[in-house]
Amino acid sequence: MKSNDSLYSTLIDKKLVPVIKITDPNSSENLADALITGGLSVAEVTFRTDCAAEAISRMKNSRPGMFVGAGTVLTTSQVDEAVAAGADFIVSPGFDADVVRHCQKVGVAVVPGCVTPSEIMAAISLGLSTVKFFPAAAFGGAATIKALSAPFPGISFIPTGGIDMRNLREYTSLPCVLAVGGSFMATEKLISAKAWDEIAARTRSALAAVCSIASV
After folding, report:
1. Rounded distance, CA 84 to CA 128, Å?
2. What is the dihedral of CA 182, 192, 67, 59, to 10 degrees?
3. For residue 7, what are the contacts with CB-CB under 8 A and spacing of at least 6?
4. Which structural domain range is residue 112 located in?
5. Residue 154 belongs to a domain with what CATH number?
6. Could you tell me the CA-to-CA distances from 29 to 7, 50, 56, 83, 105 in Å, in that order?
7. How many domains does the structure of the chain reveal?
8. How far is CA 195 from CA 34, 139, 206, in A?
């Protein structure tokens, strides 16, 4: 696993995390190449399929320079499975203190989901400074994140859920947003169709949009 500092530096620089649901592990290497071609060396592979751990392992083994995380991690046993596969970071949809503590114990970066002040305070009590905001659109989107950032100025958010090219600017323009997660760059349909050129093009377009926002 790479260092947490290197991971967060990459997120700060790129501000994008493709959220991947992969059903065929044989597509792992080609998918990694498509994202890298598009300009991103980071991805979150969700534990929503039985082959998630294998996909992470294959992406890490073939493209060791890439940051590959495990998403939708709900239990400590899934943390162990992801870490054994080579995951560089763990992402959970909600806040579970046991999962957070276990990640800290085994030395892997963890980003739990937090959408309320109480959850954020619980994350802070465990020494975290970055949380996932999910599902972002359903919980008020950028406006809610902006409101939460006022009492928690030391917290960075990674909003995910309902984000695409149409509302990317709303999120990435907020100083408290470390990065944005989304499946719009590499949808399940595109991955199944092996549309690697399209995935690379969407990734490139998203990065260009983020860069244009940063330059304003």
Report:
1. 23
2. 170
3. 42, 67, 88, 89, 109
4. 4-214
5. 3.20.20.70
6. 20, 17, 10, 19, 30
7. 1
8. 9, 32, 17
| Residue among 61, 62, 68 at smallest CA distance from 40 | 68
Helices and strands of the chain, counted as H and E runs: 10, 8
7 touches 14 (CB < 8 A):
no
Supply the pTM of this predicted model: 0.94
Report pLDDT digits (tens) over 64-117. 999 999 999 999 999 999 999 999 999 999 999 999 999 999 999 999 999 999
Least confident of 45-49, 187-191, 207-211: 207-211
Spot the catalytic one: 14, 44, 60, 146.
44
Q: Is 198 a catalytic residue?
A: no
Name the catalytic one among 60, 132, 146, 170: 132
Cross-strand partners of 89: 69, 109
Residue 188 annotated to the active site? no
